Amino acid sequence: MSETTASVLKRPHVVVVGGGFGGIAAVRKLKRADVDVTLIDRHNYNTFNPLLYQVATASLNPGDITWFLRAIRAKQSNVRFLKGTVTSMDHASKTLHLDGGLDVKYDSLVIAVGVTANFFGIPGAAEHSMPLYRRSQALAVRDRMFANLEDAAINGQDRDLRIIVVGGGATGVETAGAFAELRNNDMPTTYPELDTKRIHITLVEMLPHVLGPFHPSLRDYAKKSLEKRDVELRLETAVKEVRPDGVLVEHDGEQEFLPSSMVVWASGVTAHDTVKEWAVPQGRGGRIETDEHLRVKGVEDVYAIGDVSVSPEEPLPQLAQPAIQGGKHVAKVIAAELKGKALPKPFKYKDKGTMATIGRNSAIAEIKFLPRLKGFPAWIIWVALHIATLLGNRNRFATLINLTAKYLLGGTHNAIVGETPPIVALKPVMVEARSHMKAPAKKSPVKKTAAKKAPVGAMSAKDAPGQKSTTPPTALDQ
Cα separation of 423 and 432, whole Å? Predict the structure, then answer.
C-alpha cells in the first residue's frame, strides 16, 4: 500500500485535552463516530470535584472519587489515553506540544482542562493558603488538619485553634460545615485532650450572604444552618493578606488579624497559566472565548467547553452540567462536520438546577419543576445525585458505604486519615493514668450500716464511679 493510500485511509483524529466532566462527555459521545479519539490529561484519573471536600475532611477515601481514565476503553474501542501536559499549540499545523517531548497531531481539538484557584493577587494567598481543586490538595488539607490536632493534643491545650475557610460559595460552605461537624461530633471522643470550644471554624466571605446564586430564603437557611453548627461567619469581610500564622481581614474599614494554622482557599477560579501559551483568545478570568457552537473564536476546528470556556454573549455557570452538555454538543458538531451534514442548533444550556449541602440532614436545592427545597429532603437528593453521577460502580458503592457509615451509622468516629509528622513536645510532658477510677466489674454485697464508717482504703465520694474527680487533671488528662 502506498503512503498516499495509507494517508487517505486514516480516520479523522479528535483530540480531547482534559479528562473532567466535559472531556469525558465529549469522548463518550464520539463512541460511534468514525474517528480516532485521543484523551490527554496530566493525571491518569478523573476527579469528582464536588466531593473533594469530603476527602479533605476525612469522610471519603481519595479512591472513592477518582476514576482511572484508561478504563474508558472498556466500553469504547476508538479511544486511547495519553498522559501529559500540553505546553503549547500550533494551530497552523494542528499540532500540540506536550511536556516530555511529545507532539500530537489533530484534525479536531476539544479543550476541556477546567480551571484552578484564583488568589486575586492577595499577598501571601498563593504561598500560605490551601486550595481545593485537586486530589492531592484535598489530601494535603486533611493531613495538615490532623497534624495540627495531634500537635495540639500535646502542645496546644492552652491556646485556641482556628481553621479559616475563604469563600462563601458551595465549596466553602460545604467545607466549613464538614469541619464543624467533625469538631462537634467526633472530636469529643477522638480528641478528649482538646476543648472543642477553643477550636474555631471561621468562614470569610466578601458578600453580605453565603451561596450567592441561590434564592434569598435558601441563603438565609444556609446561614442559620452554619451558625447552628457554630461556624463563625465573617460576612462582608475582605481578605487583605494571608500569613503563615493567620489572615488579615477587613470589615467596615477596620482591619483585624485572625490567627490560624490552616487556611482553605475556596474563593474564585481562573484559567491555568499554561493557557496563555495555547494561542487562543482569552476573556474574563483567562477563560477561552467561544461562539454559539463552543468553537474557539478565530481558530479553525478547535472547541472549548466547561469551566475554561466563556461565551461573552451568554456566560455559563462554572458547574458540572454546563460542561457535560457542552461536551455532548461539541461531539455532535464534530460528527456532523465530518459527515458533511447540517450542524445542530446553537448550544443552549438547559439549567437543571443547583444544590449545596451544609452538613448532615441539611442542604438546599433549586431544581427545575420542583419547589425550592431545604433541610432533609434537599440533603437526600444531594446525596443520591452525587453518588449516581460518580464514574464507575466501584466508586458509587464505596462512596455509598462510607457516607452511610458517617451519616446513618453514627458513633464509629472512624476518620479516614493519612500520615502525619512526629510530634515533639515543646516542654516536658508526663503521661500518667487518668485521675478518676473505673467502677469494679462486680460489686460485693455491702451492709447498709457500712456506709456510716468507710473502711481504710475505701474510695472517697469524689472518686466514686460516675462522679467527677476534683483532682487537677494532668496535661493529657483533661
Answer: 18
Residues contacting 362, CB < 8 A, separation 6+:
177, 225, 374, 375, 376, 379
Which grid cell is 461? Answer: 465520694
Q: How far is CA 325 from the centre of its chain?
A: 22
Q: Which amino acid is at 341?
A: K
430-453 per-position pLDDT tens digit:
888 876 655 555 544 444 444 443
> Which one from 174, 205, 289, 366 is the annotated catalytic residue?
174
Q: At 389, is the secondary structure helix, strand, or coil? A: coil
Q: Give the distance from CA 390 to its chain's centroid.
A: 14
Q: Residue 199 carries which side chain, given as an amino acid letter?
A: I
In the block, residue with C-alpha cell 446525596? 383
Comparing C-alpha atoms, which of 147, 194, 154, 146 is closest to residue 427?
154
Q: Is 0.70 topped by the overall pTM?
A: yes
Rounded CA separation 465/461 (Å): 9
Residue 256 falls in the annotated catalytic set: no
pLDDT in tens, 379-430: 999 999 999 999 999 999 999 988 888 877 766 778 889 888 998 888 888 8
End-to-end CA gap in the chain: 83
Q: Which parts of 13-85 are beta strand (E)?
A: 13-17, 36-41, 45-47, 66-68, 79-83
Helix (H) or strand (E) holding 325: helix 320-339
Return the amino acid letter for 454.
A
